[in-house]
Design brief:
Blueprint: H1 2-12, E1 23-26, E2 47-50, H2 69-81, E3 88-89, E4 107-111, E5 118-122, E6 125-128, E7 131-136, E8 140-141, H3 150-170, E9 176-177, H4 184-190, E10 193-201, E11 209-217, E12 227-234, E13 239-244, E14 255-262, E15 270-279, E16 291-298
Antiparallel strand pairs: 1-2, 3-9, 4-5, 5-6, 6-7, 7-8, 10-11, 11-14, 12-13, 12-15, 15-16
């Protein structure tokens, strides 16, 4: 594997696209030829995210699954590049957990074969058939069964299996709101929100930069409550900070002139960019049209 990856990256780095490409390396299963210490190890695969744009490599011990890769990529492209993603999705995952220490905030169903029984990893517990175990750093399950959590894990697994059975009958995926309003109407109305004319006024001291813009509601109905969110990134795309405006609601066809102070005192001199968009007050997700790649120069 090391040699194969080495040859691949030596080859692809000759492509001009290499400098601005995000590479994701993972596996659909571990190597069954290698001895296993426990059943959970069967599902433990690496996830490597690499790009020449990565300035500060980090290792995350928090547990994620392949369900979480796409939601994180969609959030990255929406925040920094204006990708218009749906407010409601049928994704099973919530996004990668990038905590440095070991933890598991997920309910992750696991299945060895298409005909085999399903297992469940939930929090710090693992359901292996009719037995459950506590799980520790490195996805190591305790050798002593934990009967106190078995009923909870079976309930979580049962809900997941029931959802799959429903899909098999109806052949219809039901979108769920991830951190947004549960009703469809407010989400649809809020998509009419748009930001225009954004510019950054920098004072003599760069810590006093102010972002001026207008927020418009193009719908024939009042908007939901919205928070203008400005995300500052460096020239390599690494997030350097977030800045928020006051939560506002706009009447039908209303336009407001707004400002967001940008505290850039912690930034070194150089070129930065700002992504500005209306966001949901609860989740921070974009719920309208924003402006992206707004230049911000921090003077010496």
């Amino acid at each position: 594997t090391d040699d194969a990856l080495h040859r691949y990256f030596e080859s692809v780095r000759k492509d001009p696209a290499y400098a601005h490409t995000l590479f994701i390396v993972t596996g659909d299963h571990r190597l069954p030829e290698l001895p296993m210490d426990d059943r959970l190890e069967r599902y433990h695969v690496p996830l490597l995210i690499w790009s020449p744009l990565v300035r500060h490599p980090m290792r995350f011990k928090a547990v994620s699954s392949q369900f979480d890769v796409l939601p994180s990529l969609a959030a990255l492209f929406a925040t920094h590049y204006g990708l218009d993603r749906p407010a409601r999705t049928a994704w099973v995952g919530d996004g990668l957990d990038i905590a440095a220490g070991f933890r598991n905030l997920r309910h992750i169903p696991l299945k060895q074969t298409k005909a085999g029984r399903a297992d469940m990893l939930s929090g710090n517990a693992y359901l292996d058939g009719n037995r459950s175990y506590r799980v520790f750093d490195g996805l190591q399950p305790d050798g002593v069964p934990d009967a106190s959590t078995q009923e909870r894990l079976q309930s979580v697994l049962g809900a997941f299996l029931a959802a799959n059975e429903s899909f098999a009958r109806t052949r219809s995926l039901g979108p769920t709101a991830k951190g947004t309003d549960a009703s469809a109407a407010p989400v649809a109305r809020s998509s009419a929100l748009s930001i225009h004319g954004a510019n950054i006024a920098t004072g003599a001291v760069h810590a006093r930069s102010v972002l001026d813009f207008t927020l418009t509601n193009d719908a024939d109905a009042d908007s939901v409550s919205v928070v203008p969110l400005a995300v500052v990134v460096d020239a390599g795309g690494r997030e350097m900070g977030e800045h928020y405006g006051q939560a506002v609601s706009l009447a039908a066809r209303e336009t407001l002139a707004l400002k967001i102070p940008l505290d850039t005192s912690g930034l070194s001199a150089g070129q930065y960019f700002v992504a500005l968009f209306p966001s949901d007050p609860t989740s921070g997700k974009r719920i309208g049209t924003g402006q992206f790649h707004i230049p911000l120069v921090v003077p010496r």
